[in-house]
Amino acid sequence: MLELNMNTPAPKLATAEEAAEAMGVPVTQVRNLVRQGKMPHYRLGHYIRIDIEEALSWLRQEPHTSVEVAPKIIHHNARRKG
After folding, report:
1. Which segments of the chain does DSSP mark as H helices, in order?
2. Exposure of 42 by Cβ count < 10 A (0-12 exposed, 13-18 middle, 19+ buried)?
3. Eight-class DSSP state of 8
4. How many Å apart are CA 10 and CA 51, to the nearest integer?
5. Measured in Å, how far apart are the chain's first and last C-alpha atoms?
6. Distance (Å) of CA 57 to CA 23, 52, 54, 80
7. For 19-49, what is each residue's pLDDT tens digit?
8. Does the predicted model carry a pTM greater than 0.90?
9. How far is CA 53 from the centre of its chain?
10. Which residues does residue 43 pair with via DSSP β-bridges, in sequence order?
């Protein structure tokens, strides 16, 4: 839980869009990581906010060895000759 006192400056909390831009990833990736509970974040009602410094620190420490890729759907419009 976030604990603040008068001697500690409050963290700058960012939207998912701002965090994605800072991290150089799509906003959908940030939202997925938050939804899965993998990325540190704060929930303020229905708003999600991310401490960018905390997220970048997490990114440097987390072993990210795999990339999940959604399957590509290919549509063929080839006509049968017959």
Report:
1. 16-23, 27-35, 52-61
2. middle
3. S
4. 10
5. 69
6. 11, 8, 5, 56
7. 999 888 899 999 999 999 999 999 989 999 9
8. no
9. 13
10. 48
